[in-house]
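Protein data:
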Amino acid sequence: MLTKRIIPCLDVRNGRTVKGINFEGLADVGDPVELGERYAREGADELVYLDISASREGRATLTRLVSRIADRVNIPFTVGGGITSVEDAAALLDAGADKITVNSAAVRDPQLISDIAERYGSQFIVVAIDARSDSANGEWHVTTHGGSRMTDRLLLPWAYEAQERGAGEILFTSMDHDGTRSGYPCGLYRQLTSSLTIPVIASGGAGSPGDIAEVLTAGGADAALAASIFHYGDISIRDLKNILATRNIPVRLF
């Protein structure tokens, strides 16, 4: 069985790591480079940095941050936020990012996935999908702009299209669960992981080691991404991995 990965997520706004619920009520939780170094020491397998305030004007600032991270963090890291072109992706990869992630821009123009994958290879591109459940019919609709705009696209068909266009991984966040610490929608993750051949990273809702264990087993996720439980010191990554190992979940231990 392949080793399951634990991935801290750092939402970055104006050069600082922030955290809120459903991207609202954001609080400053530290310097993104220092936090990345700490999580690497604690045993994180990878890191994800998402610039939630990304814009054309902020691209140079993000690129400088990526260079700082690459200089000081010794584990792979993925960067996303505001990537709308192959050139945007190139700037971040050239600055030292190991992978980039695209979201809203790919929903608007799916060819972006194909173009980046063709230029750099599928291993360099993660397609992030934020989705919400439609209370009227229970279907999960893809959202954009940090979960604030509902689209007509449905989660499972969009994830499959992203895979076929060259995505190397899918990072799925349930916007109904993000930041709530109420657990992951594991039944939905099982549907997603069963329908794809590429790895799926689970995001949105981790409140305890049990939640993470469940999404890695019952949900079939290849990796678990979390923020609040690490940022606020609920548990260290090393302790989390030790707990997962006692449940016979394969993880990389020191």
Observations:
- The first strand starts at residue 5 and ends at 13.
- The mean pLDDT is 90.
